Amino acid sequence: MDPIYPVQTVDEAYHACHPDLALEAGDPRYIPLTSVRGGFDLPVTITNNIRRTPRGYFHQQLVTGHRGCGKSTELKRLQARLRETKYFAVYVDAEALLDLGDVTYLDVLVALTQELEQALRGENIRLSSSLRENLDRWFADVILTEEQRRDVERTLEADFGVGPQVPALARMLAAITGQIRSGSYRRVEIRRQLEQNLRVFVQRLNELVDDARVRLTRKGWNDLVFIVDGLEKMHYAPLPDGQSTHSALFVAHAEQLKSIHSHVIYTVPISLVFNANLGDAFPDPTLIIPMVKITEPDGRTLYEPGRKALFQVVARRVDVAKVMESEDLVWRLVEASGGSVRDLMRLMRLACYGATDCIRATHVETAIRELGREYDRLMQDDDLDLLIFIAQERRVPGNERSARLLHLRLVLEYQDDSGRWANIHPALRLSPRLKDRVGA
Amino acid sequence: MEVAVQPIETLVVVDDRERLAHALRLARGFALFFVRCNVPAYRAELVAHLKAQLARPVVEVDLEGEPDVYPAVARAAGSSAEDAVLFVYGLEHHLPSGDPERAQQTLRALNWRRAAYQRLGRPLAFWLPEYALAMVAREAPDFYDWNSGVFEIEVPQPQREALLADALALPDEAEASLPVEEKRARLRLLEGLWEEYRGESLAERQARLQVALKMARLHESLGDYSQARRLYEESLHIAEELGDRAGVARVLHNLGVLAQQQGDYGQARHLYQESLRIAEELGDRAGVASLLHNLGSVLQALGDLAGAKACYERALGIWERALGPEHPHVAIAVNNLGLVLQALGDLAGAKACYERALRIDEAAFGPDHPNVARDVNNLGRVLQALGDLAGARECFQRALRIDEAAFGPDHPNVARDVNNLGSVLWALGDLAGARECFQRALGILRQRLPPGHPYIRIVEENLQRVALHE
User: Fold this and answer.
1) What local confidence, expressed as pLDDT, does residue B6 receive?
2) CA distance B75 to chain A (A)
3) Domain span including residue B77
4) Is residue B162 part of a domain?
5) Closest Cα to residue B210, out of B199, B220, B197, B223?
6) Model-level ipTM above the cut of 0.90
7) Bigger pLDDT: A1 or B152?
8) What is the CATH number of the domain that holds B73?
9) How many domains does chain B contain in total?
10) Helices (H), A260-360
11) Which of A172, A383, A438, B418 lies 20 to 30 Å from B294, alpha-carbon distance?
12) Residue B147 forms beta bridges with which residues?
């Protein structure tokens, strides 16, 4: 049972401030932050873009932002808004379906197929049985034999609850993503086969998509949209050719990702924002969900609307007067969060530890100290010079090392009408390795 | 409005043990905690304390020896009470520093399976040492990012000192002959202490130096030379900072031994000479003698037999003067002189040396001491070279009897003796006997030494040679 927000005690405050759960559309804790982080409303912007796309063309949109900035919350709102405007939006949780430690465009395409099949089934829309059988047979011939499939299904049943009651194609797709995700030795083989037969695979896939679109239209839907969330969490690693795993997927294989006959929204790692070639691959500007602006770019002049919005993020969940010794403590946490909602939630949680009747200054300072330790742990000695540069210049040089810092949220991106800037996470300023070199 | 963002001050902070206990009381359903505890020996004490404090069941999962992480955690979660907290130990065993590919696999799996961990619906506290925690933070950032607390438990002073005393108690020589698993367990304790002794005080840095040296020795005896070198280099750095000249000389000496073991004789010579210079400056006669001894053996390996002979003679001179002509150290020097004479082709001279060493050791230790076994072994080798195969066989058999009695049937020295016996049997044309010997030696070495150790290769080659002739 959900509690009544805002909650009244420290124990409830702990549960009300979850760092790991994206809010579903319509949650009472939701605070619109669009005006304090760059000014655009993501669901509105993307829905409009899709509606304005002429028939026969597809809108391909990239979205990015730091881990924990509220991307998933926004994308779930987007899905709800699209459905309201009669677009059949399929939400693909890449994290649940793929191995983000090692992901290729082929895996993404299989995951899209799997989720489409499932979403349509949920709506009682039956795809053309000959197309389904064709694809199933093709997979069986080329990718996984019957025997291999049965083998995989046994694990799937135990692990993910995919039982024999679902149709053959669904089981086949689940088996393939299961194999890809589990990093089994068959993964290499599956990918090799898909790659060798890429043209046929994409063609079969698009036949299915086209069929789905026709059937959706008959049921009163305007069109189909894929929202692929979670891909920004893919593992970051530099590759021998100077590229990274990130650019290998989104730049080198952009054509394949765009080959699907549908509107599609992909989340991309924030590190790619500085990759000049991304704009060539995906011409529509990437939408960035930045951190909440809590100071001006100088890092000192406070920006009250942003601070107040974050205060509200806490106040919607927690009765500040009852749970906190003083309101100032919330302002303190807002500052230490750097405008990251995830970190603000985590700081609240950390401040609960050791607090009995209410959260006092000592608990807040301990929480901030701990966040400082956590960020210190993420930082390597050879990151120091670049972090000092960013702290001074308020901008991120476009190189692979910066990409890593953005990925780990050691460096935060901000945006307003005047443009974009960056700064190091305030928690880093506590690090003994940086403290004396960047100032408070 | 221009207001400086306040500097974050250091207030009195709440102790991490207390915070952890509170976090475990509060958590409901899934929650992720990391507890940094570098020393498992201390963890047990803390866990017992926590269990007594908590009004909910604690289920402990040890990942050591488990093939995979998630299934083990899921199994424990599945059979636990709904309000149970899971303590997960030993993730570091799935993040081996010597196997980056395996470590990466573990980290990726943590990252992609995080939703599966969430579905377990239990608070999970991963207990792990600092290095493993840093790996998880950097390489499985999404998993790590879900944490609701990272608690850093420092071992209290008295416990820490007791553990250090414990870790350093056993002399290196005794430690070298422990079974592999026990060596690894000792290494883990030392790794934890290494993380704990990070302070700047003189006492902490001295402790750190001792810990590093001990770890280096253990890695060396496990045949993991790159880790050993890294740690010796770290020790060197600390000893230099401390201005500990004797320490510097000792580490250089160890690095020389390591280089020699790895076949980098030029480097070994350089290191011994450096160390020798310091030992001579410090007037450390014993150190000088043992360095000359090692320098001799590396010169010998470099083919500078005259140089080697000169070194051994100097070392022998120092020991004879300092310790008297019948001291076991003298036996060691005489033995080596024998080896170089043998290499110079003076087999009679060599034989005389070994016989003198044998006399000294028999008188000093009695007829059944391992040192006697070593002398008899050398004597056997020169007899074999002189063509007295029956005499050689007798020597190796005697060495084997002594070592088996002294160390048990599975000791590396036994492997050495059996291997030598095999080679004389092979020379006598007894192929079956030779094969049996080599197989036994190989069995012991594989059990006692890490895969890829040079001794294993030597015996494997012997065995192949027999197979070729059968």
Assistant:
1) 43
2) 12
3) 16-154
4) no
5) B197
6) no
7) B152
8) 3.40.50.300
9) 1
10) 278-281, 304-317, 320-323, 327-337, 341-352
11) B418
12) B32
